[in-house]
Write a structure and sequence with these properties.
- The protein is α/β, with parallel strands linked by helices and 369 residues long.
- The longest helix is centred in the last third of the chain and has 20 residues.
- It binds flavin-adenine dinucleotide (FAD) and uridine-5'-diphosphate.
Length: 369
């Protein structure tokens, strides 16, 4: 079979790339190994009338107006703003750290300026200087040892299965630290949940006369039989190159879903458990969507080393291997035959909006207007 463009994967990266290419008049075949589209942001309505995220909780947020304008072409969005509580020392704290978290943890009454000074003093006690070299140093230099121990140290060890001193300092930039009373998880200007959900949104992205879709089809079983002018690859980076430089680590999760005969389970859509239990967090889905039901569905996340690749692992050993693979990617991309896009294919800890931006940018760079 000969195709103009072959897109491997119908997650956000593959779907957005396919749409951008289709709108340029190119004929695109998308092949997806799963039996559904949307990749890791797949969702569905369960028997209790609640939208469930099949691969853990997904909240859309972005600073990029162009990305927001793009997704709004394919879905309506609620005005949901994500808020999280953290269960530590037998109590629930607002998380990420804000003025109220500081006051609650230290039993203080502080205004915004005093809270900022307090955090600075806490961070200063650690005596760190220069740019942080590890995740642990990055967090302690922002919030100090007590908060690190209370909220970050054990959650991080549980999530990644390794000592936080071995993880990249960049990981710390995912969680904001505030001295005001803003208790939202994300500071981005554009936030919300797609209505009725991500799967429907991705189906609409793929709904174009120039796009055909094959589900349940693994690229590596079919590739000998397909000749493509351009391959857009969104699967695991190391697998594409047959593990030439060794395996990259992907962290996985066991997700335990429970539908309970009660209207409400917890006080926030997500509660994090840094220090207690084997799970990292519990999500109550109806609180993300505002759906009404006499029942409620929750999801507990248990991190594990092997299985479905959910996360890249942000440490030095993997970063070194990633660079070797990305040098090969660059050669293929420069030749014009391939694009590697997305969380798995770029081995980057991307949020959904970053994946969409990367897909649009890479397609545009390959075919400038
Ligand atoms: P994927 O969604 O993994 O899609 C890749 C697709 O390619 C998959 O469907 C896969 O089956 C297919 N594929 C792979 N190999 C092959 C092959 N050989 N042949 C055919 N098909 C193949 N982001 C946010 O913005 N907000 C959040 O709140 C958020 N929460 C998250 C929570 C969890 C637990 C996880 C794991 C991620 C979360 N994310 C969140 C990140 C988000 O899921 C990703 O950024 C995004 O879905 C990645 O899209 P992708 O297309 O790059 O990869
Ligand atoms: N983190 C933490 N405590 C928390 C929440 C997050 O230590 O209560 C750290 C942890 O290392 C985690 C990282 O911050 O992996 C990023 O958290 P985020 O909530 O962004 O993770 P994701 O939603 O991608 O699983």
């Amino acid at each position: 079979m000969r195709v103009e463009v072959l897109v491997v994967g119908a997650g956000l990266a593959g779907s957005v790339a396919a749409r951008s290419l289709a709108e340029m008049g190119k004929k695109v075949l998308v092949i997806e190994r799963a039996r559904h589209v949307a990749g890791h942001c797949h969702d569905y309505l369960n028997d209790a009338g609640i939208t469930i995220h099949s691969y853990g909780p997904h909240i859309f947020h972005t600073k990029e107006k162009a990305v927001w304008d793009f997704v709004k072409r394919f879905s309506d969005f609620s005005t949901y703003q994500h808020r999280v509580l953290s269960y530590a020392e037998g109590r629930l704290f607002p998380f990420p750290i804000n003025r109220d978290t500081i006051c609650q943890a230290f039993g203080l009454e502080l205004d915004v300026n005093q809270a900022a000074d307090f955090l600075k003093a806490e961070a200063g006690k650690a005596g760190l200087s220069g740019s942080p070299k590890t995740y642990q140093e990055a967090v302690i230099s922002q919030v100090g040892q007590r908060f690190y121990d209370l909220f970050f140290k054990n959650y991080t060890a549980k999530q990644w299965g390794r000592d936080p001193q071995t993880l990249s300092p960049d990981l710390a930039s995912r969680i904001p630290v505030r001295s005001n009373r803003d208790d939202r998880y994300f500071s981005d200007s554009y936030q919300g949940m797609p209505l009725p959900g991500y799967t429907r949104m991705v189906e609409k992205v793929l709904d174009h006369e120039n796009i055909s879709l094959m589900l349940g089809s693994d690229y590596f079983s079919l590739k000998e039989g397909i000749e493509a002018g351009l391959v857009v690859y969104t699967g695991e980076l190391d697998r594409y190159f047959d593990y030439r430089f060794g395996e990259l680590e992907y962290r996985s999760l066991d997700l335990e879903y429970k539908t309970l005969d009660q209207e409400r389970y917890q006080e926030a859509a997500v509660v994090n458990y840094p220090n207690d239990y084997d799970w990292t967090r519990i999500t109550e889905f109806k609180l993300l969507t505002g759906e009404k039901s006499a029942k409620t569905t929750i999801c507990l996340e248990y991190p594990k080393a092997k299985g479905e690749p959910y996360y890249i692992v942000p440490d030095q050993a993997n970063a070194r291997k990633r660079d070797l693979y990305l040098a090969e990617v660059e050669k293929l991309e420069r030749s014009g035959s391939h694009l590697f896009i997305g969380r798995l294919a770029q081995y980057a800890y991307y949020n959904m909006d970053q994946v969409i931006k990367a897909a649009r940018d890479k397609v545009l760079a390959r075919f400038p207007a």
